[in-house]
Specification:
single chain, 2 domains
């Protein structure tokens, strides 16, 4: 086995998830490359050292650029807010190191395209962290749609709604400020995951119209009430290149929804339904059955389904959130090892960011946008 010495920038929610994935992916998938947790970087040397000791990283630094340029680091994972991605990715490309970057790739489509062109010109592996679509159930949904099992897709209803900012008393943060986040709020934070699902399952989006809303105009700030600068929730109507239509909702203030990532794909022969809060099931409606036997059938995930058997051998035992990151890490290692593009590449991330940008323009100009 060949070691791949990995550097991780960021020690938040996703930093820990990537650490767990790095430490388990080789045992679960028997990968050709075996990742080593070589160095972690956070905003302070003390914090980085603490996380390194707690999570099992060999070394640490308070300077992310030191990590990128370290000769003992072979590949880099960027798990920081989007405002930092462009500079970090370009530094990784200059150092000739493959990158796995969290979504959204850039703060806008122009930034994303710069990163795409840089990493493609350098011939480096670059992937974007869209993990939810990697569940066995969603992989099965793609197989069934591609095989024509529900016929030609005619309509999609999708959403990604959560309630992490539902409470108006929660303080302002980097997520609610354009200077530290992006001009898009929930549109850049949760919407990219479900936009990515629509692109993966149905195909390119040809046009859209969008509407967004700031629900809580201000939040507590360090110096008193602070204006919220980006959206809390919104919707899109979609037209796909294959003729299908769609509707998409996104929110960070949806009371009671913790992981409200759902989609219903309707075809000429039936339909599929998925809910991330019940991620080990895919619901199938087969319109070819006699009327008395029609109805959504629950397909419970098990060993015959994509990537399930690597985690356990029993139907119904299920996979979880961190397992999605392990599958993602397997794919990244494959991209690094083979030098081949493995979905979702930076260009796939750019495709999502184009939709986000078009939705912003549509909201401001109150019109349909052609892509």
């Amino acid at each position: 086995m060949t070691e791949l010495r990995v550097g991780l920038i960021g020690a938040g929610y996703m930093g820990k998830a990537h650490t767990v994935a790095l430490q388990s992916v080789g045992a679960i998938f028997d990968t050709g490359l075996r990742p080593v947790c070589e160095m972690i970087a956070t905003s302070t040397s003390t914090g980085a050292a603490e996380h390194a000791a707690r999570w099992g990283w060999r070394r640490s630094t308070g300077d992310w650029l030191e990590l990128v340029n370290d000769r003992a680091v072979d590949a880099v994972i960027i798990a920081t807010p989007p405002r930092t991605h462009l500079e970090m990715v370009l530094a990784c490309v200059a150092a000739k190191k493959p990158v796995l970057c969290e979504k959204p790739l850039g703060c806008d489509a122009t930034e994303s395209l710069r990163m795409v062109e840089a990493i493609e010109s350098a011939g480096l592996a670059g992937m974007v962290g869209f993990n939810y679509i990697r569940t066995p159930a969603s992989q099965l949904a793609k197989q069934m749609i591609d095989a024509g099992e529900i016929g030609d897709v005619i309509q999609v209803t999708a959403e990604h709604v959560e309630d992490y900012l539902h409470d108006s008393a929660l303080p302002a943060s980097w997520r609610t400020r354009i200077s530290t986040g992006t001009a898009a709020g929930a549109l850049a934070d949760v919407a990219p995951h479900i936009v990515n699902a629509c692109l993966r399952l149905v195909g390119p989006i040809s046009s859209l119209i969008a509407d967004t809303q700031i629900v809580h105009a201000t939040r507590p700030g360090p110096n008193g009430p602070e204006r919220v600068e980006n959206d809390d929730q919104g919707q899109m109507l979609l037209r796909f290149a294959n003729g299908a239509s769609g509707s998409l909702s996104f929110s960070r203030v949806a009371a009671g929804r913790k992981m409200g990532y759902t989609y219903r794909v309707t075809g000429t022969k039936g339909a599929l339904y998925f809910d991330q809060e019940d991620q080990n099931a895919l619901w199938l409606y087969d319109a070819s059955r006699e009327p008395a036997r029609r109805g959504f059938q629950k397909l419970l995930m098990g060993p015959p389904h994509p990537d399930y058997l690597a985690f356990n051998m029993g139907f119904g035992h299920g996979t979880g959130y961190n397992d999605q990151i392990v599958i993602e890490m397997r794919d990244f290692l494959r991209a690094v090892e083979t030098g081949e593009a493995v979905w979702p590449t930076f260009r796939d991330g750019y495709a999502v960011d184009r939709i986000v940008e078009a939705a912003l323009v549509s909201t401001h100009e109150r019109r349909w946008i052609n892509l």
